[in-house]
């Protein structure tokens, strides 16, 4: 039986790729494409919006169809609506939206008590593998003589509304946990003085149509290690999200991440 999937934010950059890839995947059935009723493309065929031709699936804000999983690539307010939809439908939730406020995060954690939730700032296989590699590096370098300075550089398209990326923040959280770092700063200006050891700095570049790139720098005295992972298009995220929906459908309630989905 194919996994029945709904998409929240279906007319967006990511939503369109989910429609384009999902309609070709025989192990899935796209049953609902949600957008808010004020969306300029509301009511249009989701396939036409995604550039794959008519699918007979329309951009709606309600459906009577049942679904096994809902995937959210929207905005914080949309994520809030997606959680409510998932709980009402007793469906698994794949939460991909970033830039969430604490209230949204709390709602997602609460929902995980009653439905399965896969929650990740990046659904990319190589990003989640790089996170594992960074944890190994952080553990190995946490007490290196002279210390290891960690800086995280992320690059995204000019349209991205949140900064730094959710992925960059997650990289920083994982590394900080391993190295006992407590300070997180965003950029530098003026005369901040010499850099303290227990600090991770984030730098966000916003140019053109970059689909996402992260470089994690471990700077020692005498040598530097950099781990870079970059997307060439958005399909790495979309395919990961569809895989997450198939993984989560039918799972017991709880909070899952992409390591669970990918077996990392
Ligand atoms: N986890 C991951 O792997 C990835 C996560 N992301 C994250 O996904 C999110 C979306 O990214 P992207 O697709 O580029 O953004 P877009 O702005 O292109 O898409 C968001 C879509 O959601 C719509 N929307 C706005 N408000 C609501 C609402 N209340 N309910 C439902 N839909 C709504 C937007 O409409 P409108 O245009 O009118 O605002 C738009 O169609 C971002 O937070 C991004 O960081 C992105 C890529 C990968
Ligand atoms: O907005 C984007 O495009 C992306 N956002 C996610 C994030 O904030 O980490 C994931 C990916 O980097 C693309």
From TrEMBL:
Coiled coil: none annotated. Gene3D superfamilies: Dihydrodipicolinate Reductase, domain 2 (3.30.360.10), NAD(P)-binding Rossmann-like Domain (3.40.50.720). Its EC number is 1.17.1.8. Residues 4-123 form the Dihydrodipicolinate reductase N-terminal domain. The active site is at residues 156, 160. GO terms for molecular function: 4-hydroxy-tetrahydrodipicolinate reductase; NAD binding; NADP binding; oxidoreductase activity, acting on CH or CH2 groups, NAD or NADP as acceptor. Pathway: Amino-acid biosynthesis; L-lysine biosynthesis via DAP pathway; (S)-tetrahydrodipicolinate from L-aspartate: step 4/4. (S)-2,3,4,5-tetrahydrodipicolinate binds at residues 157, 166-167. One of its GO terms (biological process) is diaminopimelate biosynthetic process. It comes from the Bacteria. The keyword Amino-acid biosynthesis applies. Its main location: cytoplasm. It catalyses: (S)-2,3,4,5-tetrahydrodipicolinate + NAD(+) + H2O = (2S,4S)-4-hydroxy-2,3,4,5-tetrahydrodipicolinate + NADH + H(+); (S)-2,3,4,5-tetrahydrodipicolinate + NADP(+) + H2O = (2S,4S)-4-hydroxy-2,3,4,5-tetrahydrodipicolinate + NADPH + H(+). Belongs to the DapB family. This is 4-hydroxy-tetrahydrodipicolinate reductase. It comes from Bremerella cremea. The lineage of its organism: Bacteria, Pseudomonadati, Planctomycetota, Planctomycetia, Pirellulales.
């Amino acid at each position: 039986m194919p996994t029945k999937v709904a998409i929240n934010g279906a007319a967006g950059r990511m939503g369109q790729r989910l429609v384009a890839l999902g309609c070709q995947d025989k192990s899935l059935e796209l049953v609902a494409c949600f957008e808010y009723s004020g969306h300029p493309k509301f009511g249009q065929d989701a396939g036409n919006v995604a550039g794959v031709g008519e699918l007979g699936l329309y951009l709606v804000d309600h459906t009577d169809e049942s679904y096994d999983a809902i995937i959210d690539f929207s905005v914080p307010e949309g994520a809030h609506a997606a959680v409510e939809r998932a709980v009402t439908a007793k469906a698994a939730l794949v939460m991909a939206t970033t830039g969430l406020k604490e209230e949204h995060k709390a709602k997602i954690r609460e929902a995980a008590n009653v439905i399965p939730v896969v929650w990740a700032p990046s659904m990319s296989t190589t990003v989640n593998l790089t996170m594992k590699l960074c944890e190994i590096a952080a553990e190995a370098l946490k007490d290196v003589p002279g210390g290891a300075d960690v800086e995280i550089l992320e690059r995204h398209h000019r349209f991205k509304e949140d900064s730094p990326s959710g992925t960059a923040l997650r990289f920083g959280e994982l590394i900080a946990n391993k190295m006992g770092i407590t300070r997180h700063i965003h950029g530098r200006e003026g005369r901040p003085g010499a850099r303290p050891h227990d600090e991770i700095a984030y730098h966000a570049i916003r140019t053109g149509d970059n689909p996402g790139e992260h470089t994690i720098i471990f700077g020692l005295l005498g040598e530097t290690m950099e781990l870079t992972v970059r997307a060439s298009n958005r399909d790495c995220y979309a395919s990961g999200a569809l895989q997450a929906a198939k993984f989560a459908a039918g799972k017991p309630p709880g909070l899952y991440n992409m390591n669970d989905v990918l077996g990392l």
